[in-house]
Amino acid sequence: MKKYLVPVLTILIVGLSSLAMAAGNGAGILNSPHDFSAAAWNSTGEICVTCHTPHDGGRASNAAGMLWNHDLSAATYTMYDSALSSSLDGAVDAQPTGVAKLCLACHDGTVALEAFGKNTAVTTTSVPTYAEIPRLDDNGNEDLRGTHPISIVYDDVADVNLNIAASTPIGTSGVIADVLDVGGKLQCHSCHDVHDQEAVAGTALLRVSNAASALCLTCHLK
Length: 222
Description:
This protein is mainly alpha-helical. It has five helices and five strands; from the N terminus they run ααβαββββαα.
């Protein structure tokens, strides 16, 4: 059995190292902008429970995945699409999907922050205006056309102006492919490390400082 122990330990160490790399700078969520343990609306005093629960909290955990514990938004959105950019080659979903849908559960400003778990007396505490992603109304839709496309396939084959996802580093989070969602889609967490404490100090949890447009140029070959 001992002869198998070293290879197994090596695999575990490499695997854990990869997870640490994907997590960003490793400072963690404690005291980060997503640490709501001391918020007046969070009576649990916990950090993770606002978004996640190990057991069904009666919200969207079984439908949204990631043991989700927060109400999802019922809003419909106007998405950024190829009509706005002749160089947009990746397929864009008709509505936000995957991780972006989860982020918008708070960041579209339509859902109360305390709408999680078994809370029933939900008030209207919402994210500050500066943290609301859609800021315009499009005939009743939340308008995402003023933001970078989300729920879009990062197609570095069709678009020669995109860096190669499998080999281009993105800060300390690995390569671009490591921060894409299922199906190779770019989502909110592709640029923002939502579980890390100031992945880049003084920014909105960016994975890479955008000084000299470094974050933009991580993906865009210009």
